[in-house]
Amino acid sequence: MSDPTARNRLDEAASPYLRQHADNPVNWQPWDEAAFEAARERDVPIFLSIGYSACHWCHVMEEESFSDPEVADVLNEQFVPIKVDREERPDVDSLYMTVCQAVRGGGGWPLSAFLTPEKEPFYVGTYFPKEAERNQPGFLPLAKRVANEWTQNREELEERADQWMSTARGELESLPDPIDVGDESPLLDAADDLVRATDPDHGGFGRAPKFPQASRVNALLRAHHRQSAADTRYGDAARNALDAMAGGGLFDHLGGGFHRYCTDADWTVPHFEKMLYDQAALAALYVDGYRLFGEERYADVVDETLGFVDRELGHPDGGFYATLDARSAPPEHPEGDHEEGAFYVWTPEDVADAVSEYAADAPADAPDDVLADLACARYGVDAAGNFEDGQTVLTVSASLEALAAEFDRSESEAADLLAAAEERLRVAREDRPRPARDEKVLAGWNGLMATAYAEAGLALDSEYAERATEAVEYVRETLWDGDRLSRRVIDGDVAGVGYAEDYAYLAAGALATYEATGSRDHLGFALDLADALLAECYDAETGALYQTPESVEDVDVRSQEVADGPTPSPVGVAAETLLALDAFDPDAGYGDAASAMLERYGGRAETTPTSHATLALAADTHANGLLEVTVAADALPDEWRETIGASYLPHRLLTVRPPTESGIDAWLDDLELDSAPPIWAERGAVDGEPAAYVCRRACSPPVTTTEAISEWLAEFRV
């Protein structure tokens, strides 16, 4: 049998990240049994590199080391080099990232790990330059030293690997002590901790680097809603974060959407990759910010973000792609090396040229130089710049009121001129070399995005709900076999098992899409996904929710993802969604499973709420109960949609059922329910007219006017 490690096998991969490395002189292997068997037969360590396609430092390490023949010779001769896309294999990433964080005190990507042939790590790190610099070890001498250590001190390295794996197994597989889940919500205590963790000067949490932390802001919004009459601390902290993220360099002020995070404390310079999950979390967050505070600028952020997602990340058949890269060729050198942020940054000369050259795309009643000066003043573009080489990341640096005064115009005139300048810059930017796109469609991330579109469909424009429908239907048709989910599809290539996050996020997205559209097909899909989640990843004896199904055998540790990371806690999302679905099928055990998860993991929401905000939100819903709004009608009346959908109702469960009992019977047949659940039973139309029923432990009478609905929503506000 030929040695699979004699060549680079990534040309067989569908993952864009893996294919980026298919031309490396390193004989990269995918994470598969052939590679593991080769390591055992050759009796050499594995070098494991984990990253993702939009990762800036992954690109840097590839260019410095993995494209270098000298490095390749060492890796090929002394190791079995394996490359993993963390977005395809979050379980592999979780295991070795846990080791890295335990050993190094931190992690990140690229994740670099040297493993025994049995896949146990004995040396871990992140990015390494080829040669030592700035107190960082060089990758080439490191690889040589590790190879020598393996030959000279193998027993010691294997003992270390055993210890590290024991540490990882203890952290990822051990179950926390359960708590009693009663009527006390952890929300306000969690919000107190979150307020203490905020940056009062610049908004958000902590110092540099600054991540969006949408779940934390969500918890502050809910706490403000609960306590606004007595305490505005929570609302102030939430507003500061929302305003800082939308006004700074995290947000793309020309194209919409959010970058991954900012490298500084004041939200000026981002890492420029754009991840689908960030767009989902932040669009949904700003929908709620709009609902709670009534700020139109938050609705504008939602519109611009969802417009970006549909335009730049939308799959033609309905789903959403995963990421846009941080790097692209500079406009002045379209064939040159890719640079981070090249697509997004400006100089005053760039602005002046764009405003002049693209004048026909947005005519304006002002000279070009005035428009250029106005745009520079608005977005802080000057000769010094705030980025590399005198370039500027656009940030909102002057209000419309200040611009109007500076340029001797009315505010409406200044706004019109600014809009024309922005359109010219936008069109000019479209002619620049574009960042690469990772065209993976991931089940779970599409669920998150469907939720954002569905909530925007309720709060802002019903057309957004249609886009949520397209995403859910695409994933259902492509990645769902009727019983189980696959993880991803790339250009028709379906692969990977569904993880807990895929089932939980997609079930939440399907449920939200049902709420926004009233289509029972989406509700049925959410129920099916909940069944599959419990069958694949849930242990009813312990209340544990595992990241991977039991069928996954190539990772030695079965982890639980409880904390919020770049994406929300799968446990928290699952618990919240199961609590809602229990209203439709009380005999399916969804409520019992949600309660058991919160009993098992709820202590973490109490002790470390800054890391477990999503879990705290689910526990709050469990403690306070759902705010059920049942509408008996052929469709949700537009006026009621505005009243219900645009209101901040954090525990809302909106269901539109058929107005007649015969209609309900047809639904029950389709959904394979034996009888009408309490949320639908005896809640029909009144004299042939739409009727609403508002319930939280107690219920309103049937109401038929918008005013009455508003009164009952206020009654059950919490």
Describe this structure in words.
This protein is α+β, with helices and mostly antiparallel strands and 718 residues long. It is 49% helix and 10% strand. The protein contains 26 helices and 20 strands. The protein has a four-stranded mixed β-sheet with strand order 2-1-3-4, sandwiched between helices. Strands 18-17-19-20 form a four-stranded mixed β-sheet. A hairpin with a 7-residue loop joins strand 5 and strand 6 (270-271). The longest helix is centred in the first third of the chain and has 20 residues, at 154-173. The protein is globular. The mean pLDDT is 96.
**Count of helices?**
26
The Rg value, from CA coordinates, equals 27 Å
Average of the residue pLDDT scores: 96
Which band does the percent of strand residues land in?
Answer: 5-15%
Write out the strand line-up for the largest beta sheet, numbering strands in chain order: 2-1-3-4
Largest sheet: 4 strands, mixed
Structural class, judged by helices and strands?
alpha+beta
Whole-Å distance between the termini? Answer: 68 Å
Number of strands: 20
Q: What coarse outline follows from CA principal-axis ratios? A: globular
Helix content: 40-55%
Instruction: Give the low-confidence spans.
Output: none
